[in-house]
Design goal:
Layout lengths: L7 E2 L16 H5 L2 E9 L2 E2 L2 H14 L6 H5 L1 H12 L4 E8 L17 E7 L6 H6 L1 E7 L14 H12 L4 E6 L2 E5 L3 E6 L2 E4 L10 H12 L4 E3 L4 H5 L3 E5 L6 E6 L2 E2 L6 H15 L2
Parallel strand pairs: 6-7, 6-13, 10-11
Antiparallel strand pairs: 1-5, 2-3, 2-4, 4-5, 7-8, 9-10, 9-12, 12-13, 13-14
Length: 284
């Protein structure tokens, strides 16, 4: 991080290493807030309207007025941070908590002014060698709350699951609830079986990923066979190919799941989608 890098916090642009929050902020005390992660490719905000729509929906679902998204003009803020910090290919976080109350209380005060933070992070996406080789994953029980369609800042379960995967030298934990795949601890999941690409249909049990939407668009654009459907644990293990999607890495092949080898390297359909996605991004 550059010493002069700035963030947006409640209408001001302080240096990133000096920005601070109140200890009574409900985001800190309760995880009472939502967030959005938006890729910036070649200084362009990726799938911007889809990200803002999801942010509004998350706010609405936790009873924070979603009109704040339009009132604050996040596009202008992101562009300002991009210019000030020299961002080119970065990832922009928008965090909105319910704000600061007078005391620590589960019952929140009405009309509290939300706390709004926008900041950039630089991640290094996997190179082509990593993509071709693929990654390993583990299967874990999905013990998160039943409103995982909200992009909540309350990520403790996701943190525990992701770290358990990491301790097992795996990239991701693929989550099973009631016998069916939901998503990864920090990604959506796709499988390929008999040349048909499949992903779990949207519900309250998984996040409506914007990269999931992007890949669905790519798949449709190129006329590939695609289904949004229930995927059992058994079907997951019998997949011909598996890949995860997230904003930081749109397509990550999973070549080993627990002790089962799914494929020696990234499968042909996974690589086709990866290449189509990269071509789209590079053309922006």
């Amino acid at each position: 991080m550059s010493q002069s890098e700035v963030v947006y916090l409640n209408g001001k642009y302080p240096p990133k290493d000096q920005a601070s929050l109140s200890i009574l902020d409900r985001g800190f005390l309760f995880g009472d807030g939502v967030y959005e992660l938006i890729p910036l490719h070649n200084k362009k905000i990726f799938y911007m309207q889809h990200h803002f729509m999801r942010l509004k929906k998350s706010l609405e679902l936790i009873n924070i007025d979603p009109s704040i998204v339009d009132e604050i003009n996040f596009e202008k803020i992101i562009n300002s941070l991009t210019d000030s910090n020299g961002y080119v290919n970065h990832f922009i976080y928008i965090h909105i908590s319910r704000g600061v109350d007078n005391s620590r209380n589960h019952i929140y005060m009405e009309n509290t002014a939300p706390t709004v933070l926008v900041m950039g992070e630089k991640y290094q996406p996997f190179d082509i060698d990593n993509i071709i080789a693929g990654k390993s994953a583990v299967i874990e029980e999905d013990y998160r709350w039943l409103k995982s369609n909200i992009k909540s800042t309350s990520l403790l379960a996701n943190v525990m699951l992701k770290n358990k995967a990491n301790l097992n030298n795996s990239y991701e934990a693929l989550l099973i609830r009631d016998g069916f795949l939901t998503e990864g601890s920090a990604s959506n999941v796709f499988i390929v079986k008999d040349n048909i690409i499949k992903t779990p249909k949207l519900s309250n049990k998984l996040l409506p990923g914007i990269t999931r939407k992007f890949l669905s668009d790519i798949i449709t654009m190129h006329g590939l066979n695609f289904e949004e459907t229930d995927i059992s644990k058994d079907a997951l293990l019998r997949s011909d190919e598996i890949f995860c999607s997230s904003s930081t890495n749109p397509v990550v092949p999973i070549t080993k799941l627990d002790d089962k080898l799914i494929s020696k390297n990234a499968g042909p359909i996974t690589m086709k989608i990866y290449n189509h996605a990269q071509d789209f991004i590079k053309a922006l």
